[in-house]
Amino acid sequence: MRARSLLPVLATCLALLAPLPARAMGPPDLGRLRERVETLLARHTALERRVGRAAVAYVRAAQAAAAAQAGLEEAEATLEERIRTAYQLGPGAALEAFLGAPTFADVEAVSEYAARTVALDERTLAGAALARDAALAAQGRAERRLEALRPELERLRRSLARIRAELEEAEAAAARAGAQAAWLAAQRLALAGAEARAVGWEDLRTLTWGEDQAPYLALLGPTGGRTCEIPPGLVATGETFSGYASWYGWEFGGQPTAMGAIFDPTLFTAANRWLPMGTFLRVRAGDRCAIVLVNDRGPYGRLERVLDLSKAAAEYLGVGVTWVQAEVLVVAPPA
């Protein structure tokens, strides 16, 4: 009886000593890899926002440097013209004018003219010196902005490489498990978009190229688009449409728009799929309105979305993905 009573105990011990089955490599691993890739993509988006801010700051500084350089060239041209005129008149011109004056009143007039000419030359010299200092300072600011952008771009490259490696590992794991993971295609698409944006930032020299949209932005009026009133210089066409509006921000900062200028999320602009570039819209959301310039194409992928607003315009209207009404405005014809 005692031996028989030991059999269950012995069986239990043998069961505990038996080797455990190998853990299956399947969905749990894919879930872990998915979380890792999604985390990396979220961090990459935050990094893109930093790069976008740095890119826009550099472009603004480079444009200011270009304007300062133009001012310097104008000041130097004025100075050169004054020097040429003085050389052509010769050192004896003033003396000859004095000697040739028939009356004391004429002598006084010649004296005043000579004094004003000397003062003007001094102002011209001072203006040229100030313009040169301004150009050098602006160029220095642009170069510092450029240097600040370079390490951000290097971080962006490393981030893309890591996402690419993790995604390839996830795809290999899915293939081994014979699993069909729809999220892999979505993440591959997200990676392709990030790589395309990175290319737009890589050639720093092209960031200042493109059409100057300042004349268009000036038509937004003194409020910069923060109004329901149609600004002077624009007229309503009577054409309206409605749909969902989304928005995009600093992760696209410094990227070229369809209009040619860079995207600056602090300006009141919008992307649309069908309107001509340079069209304006009065966008209504509830009791608020914004006047925006259409300077880009989009949104894509969701046809119910009719506008991608800039971050500034969306924040002013208080919208995320929201139903809006839009009225088409155009530049008023000359009177």
Walk me through what this model shows.
The chain is of the alpha/beta class and 335 residues long. The protein has 2 domains: 25-208, Helix Hairpins; 214-331, Barwin-like endoglucanases, CATH 2.40.40.10. Helix content is 58%, strand content 15%. The chain has 7 helices and 6 strands. The protein has helices at 2-17, 27-89, 93-100, 104-177, 182-202, 214-218, 311-317, and strands at 234-248, 269-271, 280-285, 288-296, 305-310, 322-331. The chain has a 6-stranded mixed beta barrel with strand order 1-5-2-4-3-6. α3 runs antiparallel to α4.
Task: Report the β-strand fraction as a percent range.
Answer: 5-15%
What number is the mean pLDDT? 81
What general form does the structure show?
flat
Strand order of the largest sheet: 1-5-2-4-3-6
Question: Would you state the CATH class of the largest domain?
Answer: Mainly Alpha
Structural class: alpha/beta
Q: What percent of residues adopt helix (DSSP H or I)?
A: 55-70%
What fold name stands as the CATH topology of the largest domain? Helix Hairpins
Number of strands: 6
What is the string of helix and strand elements? Answer: HHHHHHEEEEEHE
For the CA atoms, what is the radius of gyration? 34 Å
CATH arch. level architecture of the largest domain: Orthogonal Bundle
**Parts with pLDDT < 50 across at least 5 consecutive residues:** 1-26
Q: How far do the termini sit from each other?
A: 117 Å
The major pleated sheet works out as: 6 strands, mixed, barrel
The total of helices stands at 7
- Tell me the domain tally: 2
